[in-house]
Amino acid sequence: MDVDGLIDAVIAREGGYARNPADRGGATRWGVSEPVARAQGWQGPMRALPREEAKAIYRRIYWLRPRLDYVADRAPRIAAELFDTGVNMGPPVAITFLQRALNALNRNRADYVDVAVDGRIGPATLAALDAFLAVRAPGGEAVLLKAIEALQGERYLALAERRPANEAFLYGWLANRIGGEARL
Known about the structure:
InterPro entries: Lysozyme-like_dom_sf (IPR023346), Peptidoglycan-bd_3 (IPR018537), TtsA-like_GH18_dom (IPR008565)
Domain Peptidoglycan binding: 94-177
Distance between the termini: 8 Å
Pfam family, one: PG_binding_3
Helix content: 55-70%
Order of helices and strands: HEEEHHHHHHHH
Strand order of the largest sheet: 1-2-3
Protein name: Peptidoglycan binding protein
Domain TtsA-like Glycoside hydrolase family: 8-90
């Protein structure tokens, strides 16, 4: 699936306008939170945020800025997961899941060196991803995806444990955010 398809899938899942008092993100439209929309220059009421503006925000903030297009060239399923996770948790958090998984899967640096867990896609992270995929072909991408989703699921549980109001969201997070292609 290309980035436009990923964006359309997120918008379909997130729906139109929402304002849940338990959601620290505040009002959302098309899944874009009010703080993100304001930071991107949206001045109007959240209920009026155009779908095309939301799509542009998703592309700019959650795909291009974190350099997921570079990941997609190598591992499209990983890029799709990082995009979706980044929309929900922020791109740096999603990218740290990738970096942590790559570090844990390098067999004590026998396959490639550890990368800094800094939440940014740079040359070292891309080199580690390339090396992992080369060493673990053909099933490496699927295993890496499972590792990323395991980290994501653990984070959702921790969020619900630390803040009971998040329990209202836990089932949906697990049902709609974890599972790879089943939700894209």
